[in-house]
Write a structure and sequence with these properties.
about 325 residues; alpha/beta; 434 Repressor (Amino-terminal Domain); Rossmann fold; six-stranded mixed β-sheet; 11 helices
């Protein structure tokens, strides 16, 4: 039987890209999709998940509690990954119900989690905001339902998708350190904690600069940054050449452009259409972002395996890839 991995190797692309094409995802170039579908037909690929054609009579309900932020691409791509996985395993009667809470409202997520658990579900995928409260709620039932967490591990014997945010911050620090003159400084703005990635980005970035013995100003904490954009200018001293923000980078860079103070070297973390535009217009050198589509797809795949396979290890960590995007590498 021809596998997706074999198709990917033949074309020199990732298995995730192959899965997107075979599942009819719109999140892929049309010419790439055509090549994949053509090769799949030529090699006799059959869409038959995990080598089984048996449909499962009992339907399984999986609830995914995800978070939405100003970066619309983050949630959209995780959802696309989950939806593609659901399509791939639809013969098994699996339904994935996606619920959303705001990244800044951990209390609302707890309410939604409690409400979700009032009904019978077979599996739970969650991006936990208040980790300790989520653990307290799930501890009594963690052996009754299958649980996969994204971004944070909940239990030592659990399955989670490691987003590697700290590593992404380190890569961003390495890039910026290499493009800023050694006799110049890098301004680091701490725009707060989004309870998922921003603090890890910041730690990785600062650790890398310290390892490289690069001079930096900060991290400077500016609370409620979006309403206090002008405060960034207080730290743009003459010896500053590079600037890094762990949160709200596109909005602040756009603001600095409006007041004609964006003549600095910026490297960011994360990716959305605003960042794409800033890179294309030479306002941002590069961004380092996680593969959010594959986080969703992998989370769905692993909870499927927990439901239908009995030979999984008790503790599993899955890491998805990191993308480094410069102007030349944008689609």
């Amino acid at each position: 039987m021809v596998t997706q991995a074999e198709l990917a190797k033949k074309l020199g692309i990732t298995r995730t890209t192959v899965a997107r094409a075979l599942n009819g995802s719109k999140n892929i170039k049309s010419e790439t999709k055509e090549k994949i579908l053509k090769l799949a037909e030529e090699m006799g690929y059959e869409k038959n998940y995990l080598g089984s054609s048996l449909a499962i009579k009992e339907k399984k309900l999986i609830t995914a509690i995800l978070v939405k932020s100003m970066n619309e691409d983050y949630l959209k791509n995780i959802k696309n990954g989950l939806k593609d996985l659901q399509e791939e395993v639809k013969a098994y009667g699996i339904k994935i119900k996606i619920l959303e809470t705001d990244i800044n409202d951990s209390a609302e997520q707890i309410k939604l989690l409690n409400k979700t658990l009032e009904k019978k579900i077979h599996g739970l995928i969650i991006t936990p905001l208040d980790k300790e409260k989520v653990i307290k709620i799930l501890q009594p039932i963690k052996d009754e339902i299958k649980i996969v967490s994204i971004g944070r591990q909940l239990f030592d014997s659990g399955v989670y998708i490691d987003s590697k945010y700290e590593k992404s911050g380190r890569i961003a620090g390495d890039i910026l350190a290499n493009v800023v003159n050694k006799n110049k400084k890098i301004l680091v703005i701490d725009a707060g904690d989004d309870l998922i990635s921003s603090k890890k980005y910041l730690k990785g970035f600062c650790d890398k600069l310290n390892e490289l013995d690069r001079s930096m100003i900060g991290p400077i904490n500016i609370e409620n940054l979006l309403n206090n954009k002008n405060k960034v200018t207080d730290y743009l001293l003459e010896d500053i050449e590079g600037v890094y923000l762990n949160r709200y980078a596109p909005e602040i860079i756009e603001y600095l452009g409006e007041i004609k103070k964006d003549n600095y070297k910026f490297v960011t973390n994360g990716f959305n259409e605003k960042i794409r535009g800033l890179i294309k217009n030479n306002k941002v050198i590069a961004t380092v972002s996680e593969d959010f589509y594959n986080q969703g797809y992998t989370a769905g795949k692993k909870i499927f395996e927990l439901l239908y396979k009995m030979d999984l290890k008790k503790s599993q960590e899955y890491q998805t890839k990191i993308d480094i995007l410069f102007k030349e590498s944008l689609d």
